[in-house]
Amino acid sequence: MSRAYFTITYLPTNCDVTLLAGRCIGILHGFMNERSCNHIGVSFPKWTDKHLGNQIAFVSEDKVALKNLSHQNYFEMMAHDKLFEISAIKSVPVDAPEVQIIRDHSLDKLSMGEKRRRMARAKRRAEARGEEYIPQYVPNDREISAFHKIPIASKSNHNDFVLHLRLEPTDSIKNTYNSYGFATNEEHKGSVPLLAF
């Protein structure tokens, strides 16, 4: 079955594109959870190593699901207020390069906030065992490729968090994503076309 997509372009010139991307991804997350599905992927047509770009695309073989997603209240309200431009549903070009946009949990562990949480947890565990907690520094010489951070507001537990995303080319087309529309390091290997316009 052929894939289709629609794009949302953020129209304000100096908007926080990561914040708007997070809101759009949050809408997709709720939409897929309501329907118990994981067959809509997210692409960023204007992704560069330095900038996420002012556009997000949703890709799927299921054109009905895409149409229903494009009519979510938040998207329609933002379009009505001239903050979003929502495209028609179009066929994915056959020559579009294929990529995986991966939610990389290993990058979460590198943030200072996560390091503080892990240290606090280790301290609580040591104290519960009646031991003194002595933090140890272990240098990490891991090379990190370019990535983007997108803030997400969780509706279920009201804890905000950050999605760390990196892009990798791939040769195969796969259509299973996590509930945010991305591939993961392990289970979900979904790919999306790089819809560069």
Topology of helices and strands:
Layout (H helix, E strand, L loop, with lengths): L3 E7 L6 H19 L5 E3 L11 E6 L2 H8 L2 H8 L3 E3 L3 E2 L6 E6 L1 H4 L3 H17 L19 E6 L6 E10 L13 E2 L7 E2 L4
Parallel strand pairs: 6-9
Antiparallel strand pairs: 1-3, 1-4, 1-5, 2-3, 6-8, 6-10, 7-8
**How confident overall, as mean pLDDT?**
85
What is the count of β-strands?
10
The SSE string, one letter per element, is EHEEHHEEEHHEEEE
Beta content:
15-25%
Roughly how much helix do the residues carry, as a percent range? 25-40%
Globally, the shape reads globular
Through-space gap between termini:
23 Å
Structural class: alpha+beta
What does this structure look like?
This protein is α+β, with helices and mostly antiparallel strands and 197 residues long. The protein is built from five helices and ten strands, in the order βαββααβββααββββ. It has helices at residues 17-35, 63-70, 73-80, 105-108, 112-128, and strands at 4-10, 41-43, 55-60, 84-86, 90-91, 98-103, 148-153, 160-169, 183-184, 192-193. The mean pLDDT is 85.
